[in-house]
User: Fold this.
Amino acid sequence: MKQSTILLLGSIALDTIENSFGHQKNLLGGSATYAAVSSSKFLKPNIVGIVGSDFSKTNKKVLKNSCNNIKDLIIKEGPTFRWGGKYFENGDDRETLFTELGVFENFVPLISIDNKNPDYLFLANISPDLQLNVLNQCIGNPVVVLDTMNLWIDIAKEKLLSVLSKTDILLINETELLELTEVEDFSKASKKAQSFGPNTVIVKHGSKGSVCYTGNMVFSLGVIPNLVVKDPTGAGDSFGGGLVSALAQGLSLKEAMIRGTVLASFCIEDFGINALMSSNIKEIEKRRLLLLNTLKS
Ligand code: AMP
Assistant:
């Protein structure tokens, strides 16, 4: 199988989660962490990010084991990025309780020469400023995959549109898509998002699955049924990590979406990265076969 390289940028965080299953503090999280752990089941990315002096050795080991190299992971005096979220009764929707950027606030990445020429660049959810900075440092012509969130659409839309103009594949959830495009109909909104740059727009509909708009084609995928959702945090990032790993291995967009969905399905079965970490290739394959039947074009 083809083995390309992936450069991954995103947050590395200590998360506090409140939901009907309990209250957990300082869980290892962040968009880059979920994406790295997910991708590493098949292909280890090279990570770009920063953590503070409070980041434990155990957490560092998780990143080291999930990545091909951590040359561009900076450890700096100060607090690690922290995020707190509280889920509503329906288990899907949530509110952000706090976002403390910590050492991410003044982070200016300088990508090492070895990591500058990736085949795939996954700009996971983080400020568009940082995404553009890393994108501009890359040489060659990587396939650019971008994820974002409402916060950046609200406070940094112009910068986000600049990153989008250089993006090949946009991963976005339905509320973010409507906010980004200001169009209510998903299909029309996706067309508008494609007009911003990316040839492919993948819309994540949570427990309803996902829809891929690529060129003039559309296909959709369901989800793994009957799961006990303990903590949906990081599902989108795990989806992205799985998807990029499959593309980098030369698989089709459909197979990549299936892999992303399977890895997201493990992620949500426990708090933090626990279930994702303990999933194995045999179980992943079993869920892949289940999902194949839900593919519709
Ligand atoms: P998801 O559930 O896929 O939206 O991702 C949740 C992860 O995103 C958590 O682990 C958070 O640490 C991280 N996160 C939350 N807010 C931000 C932000 N503004 N920028 C980057 N990462 C964030």
Observations:
- The two ends are 26 Å apart (CA to CA).
- The pocket of adenosine monophosphate is lined by residues 11, 13, 15, 29-31, 83, 99, 125-126, 149, 151, 233-237 (CB under 6 Å).
- The longest helix spans residues 253-267.
- The CA atoms of residues 11 and 30 lie 5 Å apart.
